[in-house]
């Protein structure tokens, strides 16, 4: 069944919601969840504080939407990568490139996840964990096809270790001023070596 066409009003509402999510990512990354008020979020998005409640039930709901949606995007993107690349070596390289791109494009979200995950409501915390476990399993599956003798527990540890390496990018790039192209290349090569031993 097809979706009804967007009206100007629903499109404007969707755009405002997107601006609120982006503003929340920026402010939460800079100040932490507890250092940001509803009024701060509204001002950053160009609306009054109370107008935020037209889109979200509160600050915690906004944090939940931010981290659940980015986790959904990560899983969907990883699945799309594996659908587009059928050979195992290129699939792993494509997954690495996809995750590096995510880290470079969404550094604020990574900071928020690292620092404010425990501020999520229980339901959203469970949803994020479930989505992220499914994402890890994409990597575990590809590694299993490349290295069938490698135990599954080892493959999971390797995937998590590589995520840690790549997700540290927002901190390392900011601290050391590496150009993005250099950071991208170095991270992709390091992740490949960590996962394959080559």
How do the strands and helices of this protein lay out in sequence?
Blueprint: H1 8-31, H2 38-45, H3 59-84, H4 88-105, H5 107-116, H6 122-146, H7 152-167, H8 169-176, H9 180-196
Which regions are unreliable across 5 or more consecutive residues at pLDDT < 50? none
Q: Can you tell me the CATH architecture of the domain at 59-196?
A: Orthogonal Bundle
Q: Estimate what percentage of residues fall within beta strands.
A: under 5%
Number of DSSP E strands: 0
Helix content: over 70%
CATH superfamily of the domain at 59-196: Tetracycline Repressor, domain 2
Number of separate helices: 9
Q: Write down the secondary-structure element order.
A: HHHHHHHHH
CATH T-level topology of the domain at 59-196: Tetracycline Repressor, domain 2
Report the CATH C-level class of the domain at 59-196: Mainly Alpha
- Outline: elongated
Task: List its traits.
0% strand; single chain; TetR family transcriptional regulator; DNA-bd_HTH_TetR-type_CS; mainly alpha; 9 helices; Tetracycline Repressor, domain 2
Report on the architecture of this protein.
By secondary structure, the protein is an all-alpha fold. Helices cover 77% and strands 0% of the residues. The protein contains nine helices and no strands. The chain has helices spanning 8-31, 38-45, 59-84, 88-105, 107-116, 122-146, 152-167, 169-176, 180-196. The termini are far apart.
